[in-house]
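Researcher: Sequence recovery benchmark, item below. Answer with residues only.
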């Protein structure tokens, strides 16, 4: 008898991949500079009827802060992956500035294809476990960690 239902490995892996795939975009958003918009009349930031500035700067800063917080969550989860080889595979595949093919990654790292995919699978499951306390884990019948743990708390 198991304490938890069986893990839906396919959906869990998809969740982890989708979250990690956002890393490069979030990195760009978190580091982007604010560029004021120039209107057709060649003036910065159109004024409203009440002569107040629009809240474009506030939106920009909120977007940057949100992206930075999400980056920190992802990086914390990657750093929580136990094996250094698994962490290395995640960083090479999802966090480097330029996207590389899996073949290029495992050749650069000196792994065989099967070894690379075994490490990647293990890394994705560990990432899913540690990201936001298991938020990405999906169990049979579509149950999530918070639904399962709700029964125990």
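Model:
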């Amino acid at each position: 008898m198991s304490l938890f239902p069986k893990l839906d490995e396919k959906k869990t892996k998809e969740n982890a991949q989708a979250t990690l795939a956002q890393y490069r975009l979030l990195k760009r958003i978190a580091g982007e500079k604010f560029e004021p918009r120039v209107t057709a009349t060649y003036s910065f930031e159109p004024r409203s009827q009440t002569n107040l500035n629009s809240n474009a700067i506030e939106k920009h800063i909120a977007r940057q802060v949100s992206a930075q917080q999400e980056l920190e969550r992802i990086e914390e989860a990657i750093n929580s992956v136990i094996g250094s080889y698994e962490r290395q595979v995640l960083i090479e595949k999802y966090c480097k500035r330029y996207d590389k093919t899996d073949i290029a990654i495992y050749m650069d790292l000196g792994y065989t294809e099967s070894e690379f995919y075994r490490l990647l699978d293990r890394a994705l499951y560990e990432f899913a476990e540690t990201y936001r306390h298991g938020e990405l884990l999906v169990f049979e019948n579509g149950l999530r960690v918070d639904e399962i743990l709700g029964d125990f708390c």
